[in-house]
Amino acid sequence: MLWQQLLNGLTLGSTYALIALGYTMVYGIVQLINFAHGEIYMVGAFVGLFLVITWDVNLGIAMVGAMAVCMVLGVLVERIAYRPLRGKSSRLSPLISALGASIFLSTLMALIAGVNTRRYPAVVDLSSYSLGPIQVSSMQVVILLVSAGLMIGLQFLVRRTRIGKAMRACSQDLDAAALMGINVNRVISYTFAIGSALAAAGGVMVGVYYNAVWPYMGTMAGLKAFAAAVLGGIGSIPGAMLGGLTLGIMEIMGVAYISSSFKDAIAFGILILVLILRPQGILGEKKNKKV
Amino acid sequence: MRQLEQWITGIIDPYYLRIIILLGINIIMAMGLNITTGVTGQLSMGHAGFMSLGAYTSAIVTLKLGAPFWAALLAGAAVAAFFGFIIGLPALRLEGDYLAIVTIGFAEIVRVFFLNFEPGGKAVGLSGIPQQTSFTLVMITTIVVIFFTQRLLSSRIGKAMYAIRENEIAAEACGINTTHLKVLSFVLGAFLGGLGGALYAHYMYYISPQDFDFMRSIEILNMVVLGGLGSIPGAILGATILTILPEMLRVVAEYRMLFYGALLVILMIFRPNGLLGNIRLYDLLKPKREREVKPCQS
User: Cα(B282)–Cα(B232) distance, rounded to whole angstroms?
Assistant: First the structure.
C-alpha cells in the first residue's frame, strides 16, 4: 500500500516538476511569476489531443508536436505580454499582464474546443504489471521515463551548452550579462521556449494518464506547480524537481491517509508550513538583504 | 433612511442598481487590498479568502443565530481580520512571491474548508440569506471606508506604510516598527475584505465556495494594480472599470473573457504603473504642476 502510493505520488510529482521547471527558469532570469504557464500546459494537452484525433499519431509524435507548438506560443506570450513591460514598471504590472494572458488563453481554448472535458483515445495500452506488491501501469512508466529524460536533457542544456551558460549568467545578473555581450532578449526567449516545451510534455502525459483534458485545467495545475517551485526554492532548477516530487508524494499520501476531499488544501498547507520554517524553500539560496 | 432607499429604488433601474451596489462592495474590498498590497507593498493574492470568511461568518450568524444585521457584518469583518492577523505573521519572514504563494495557498485552504464545512452547506453553499444590504447602506459604508482610508494614509501610520513599500531597510533604520505595521496592514486589508464579503452575502441571497475562488482574488488585485498602487482614487477607478467592463462586454457575449484578458494586457502595456499610479486624493485638488512625482517601485 505504502509503496503503491509512493509510486503514484512520484508519477504525479514528476508532472508537477515538469511544469514547475518552467516557472523556476523564467523566475530565475526575469523575476516574474509567469501565470500564463499553466495555460501553456493546458494548450499542450489540447494540441496533443488534436494530433491524436486528427492524424491518429502515436504518443511520442503527439508529445513532440505539442512541445513544438507550445514553444512558439510561449515565446509569443513573452513577446506580446511581458517584453513591452520589462524594466519600466513595478514588478506587479507584468504579473497582471500575465494573468490577462492566462485568462485570454483559457477562454480562447474554451471557444475553440468547448468547455466540456475531452477524453484521450487509447494511445498507449493501459495494461499494468505487478512488481511484487505494487501495480505499475504502462503510462506511469512512460511518465517517469520521459520526465527523467527531459530533466536530464535540461540539466545537460543548462550545464554544458553555450545557451545554458548564457542563461546561468542572466539569472545571476541580467545587466552584467548584457554588458558582457549576451543578447538578453534572445536568452529570455529561449528560456520561455524550453519551459513551455516541458509544460507541454507534462500536459500531454497528464491528459493521457488521467484521461481528461479541459480548457480550465491549467489554473490549478499551474498553482500547484508554482507552489512546487517555491517549495524547492524558486529560481533553482534542482529545487523545482525536488519540490515537484515532494509535493506530488505529499499530496497522494495526504489523500490516502488523511482525506481525499482536502486534497488541494493538503498541498498548500504543507507548502505554508515549509515556508514558515524555511522561508527560502528547500534548496533556495538565502539572499542577504543589501542596502 | 428607508424613505431614501425607496426613492432611489424607484428612480434607478434594478439592473443599474445592482451594478452600483456591487461596485460599492468592490470598492470596499479594493480599499482593503490597497492598504496591504498598494501601500505597504505586501503582495496578497488571496483576498477572496478573507472575503469568503466574512461572507460565511456573517451568513451563519444571521441564519443560525438570528443576530441583527450590524452584528453579522461586524462578526464577518472581525473573523476575517483575525485571519488577516494569522496570515500576516508569516509575512514577517517572507517576501514578494513567497508571500504571494502563501496567500494563494491560504485562500485555497479556506475554499476547500468551506467545501467540506457542514454548517456552510458544503459544496452546495448557503442560500436564503436575507437581503439586508441596501443601496444606501452600501453607499454610506463605502464613503465612510474611503474617508477613513484617506485619513489613515495621510497619518503617521500611513506614511510609515508607504515607507515600508519603498524601502523596508531604510524604513526600519528610521525607527519604523515594520513588524507591527506589516501585520496591521494585513489586519486592515482583511477587515475590509471581510466587510465586503459580509455585505456581498447579504446582497446575493446565496453564497457558495465557488464564488470565492482564485479568479476572485485576481479580480480584486487587478482593481488595485490597474488603478495604481497605493492610490485611493486609483483603487476606486480600478474597481469601477473592472465592475463595469464585464457588464459592457456582455455585448460580445461568449468572447467576453477573451476581451477582458486582452484588455488587461493592453492596459498594462500602456499604463504600466496603473491608471492613477501614486496619485493621492489631495493631489487631484492641487494645480497640476505642484503634484509630487515619484517613481513607483515595489
Answer: 10
With an 8 Å Cβ cutoff, are B101 and A111 in contact? no
Q: Name, of A202-206, A259-263, B202-206, the range with top average pLDDT.
A: A202-206
Instruction: Specify if B193 maps to a domain.
Output: yes
Q: Inspect the interface and report whether the beta carbons of B105 and A96 lie closer than 8 Å.
A: no
Q: Are A103 and B264 in contact (CB < 8 Å)?
A: yes
Is residue A122 within 8 angstroms of chain B, CB to CB? no
Residue B35 counted as domain residue: yes
Within-domain flag for B250:
no
Of B31, B23, B66, give the one whose Cα is nearest residue B50: B31
The residue segments making up the domain with residue B185 are 2-212
| Predicted confidence (pLDDT) per residue in A7-27, tens digit | 888 999 999 999 999 888 888
The structure's pTM equals 0.84
- Domain edges within chain A: 2-216
Overall number of domains in chain B: 1
Determine contact: A102 vs chain B, CB below 8 A. yes
- Return d(Cα B55, Cα B74) in angstroms, integer: 11
At residue A134, the 3 state secondary structure works out as strand
B155 inside domain:
yes
Contact B38, B235 (CB under 8 A): yes
